[in-house]
Amino acid sequence: MSEIVEIFTDGACKGNPGPGGWGAYLRSGKHEKKLCGGEAMTTNNRMELTAAIKGLAALKKSSNVELTTDSQYVRKGITEWMPGWKQRNWRTAAKKPVKNVDLWKALEQESARHQVNWHWIKGHSGHAENELADQLANDGALPFLDGAL
Question: Which terminus of the chain is more exposed, N or C, with fewer CB under 10 A?
């Protein structure tokens, strides 16, 4: 695991819930990949999680990953909250079921294949790669917007 892969992710939702999209921009050396997709009825948090899952899943081999998200929900969930959730059988500290548990489990599985350092950046602050991920997320939502407007 010597090569470093940078992944920048974002999710978007038009209405919450509503039509949404996710985007991931991957870069390693001179190689780059842009990914996006969406769903007709989803939430912003689900799209933020999906972006990270899809970004990590796109890597063909185990890698050192620097993953940057503008979602504190994603970053804190995977780095801080998950151990407690698992200890409580996927319940919050308030004993309520963890929302989006299917995606948290998928993110945990994809993360385990790699050495991931999680970073947070303020969204819509002019960070070029975050803005690109945001554009990809909005592009991913486009096919689902027709019936929503």
Answer: C
Nearest to 75 by CA among 7, 145, 28: 7
Q: What distance in Å separates the CA atoms of residue 61 and residue 33, rounded to the nearest whole number?
A: 15
Give me the residues of the chain with pLDDT under 70, please: 1-2, 147-149
pLDDT tens track for 42-82: 999 999 999 999 999 999 999 999 999 999 999 999 999 99
Q: What is the pTM of this model?
A: 0.95
State the DSSP string of the chain.
---EEEEEEEEEESSSSEEEEEEEEEEETTEEEEEEEEEEEE-HHHHHHHHHHHHHHT-SS--EEEEEES-HHHHHIIIIIHHHHHHTTSB-TTSPBPTTHHHHHHHHHHHHTSEEEEEE--TTSS-HHHHHHHHHHHHHHGGGTTTT-
Spatial neighbors of 48 by CB under 8 A, at least 6 apart, are: 9, 10, 11, 22, 69, 71, 73, 74
Residue 10, beta-bridge partner list = 23
Active site residues: 10-11, 48, 70, 124, 134
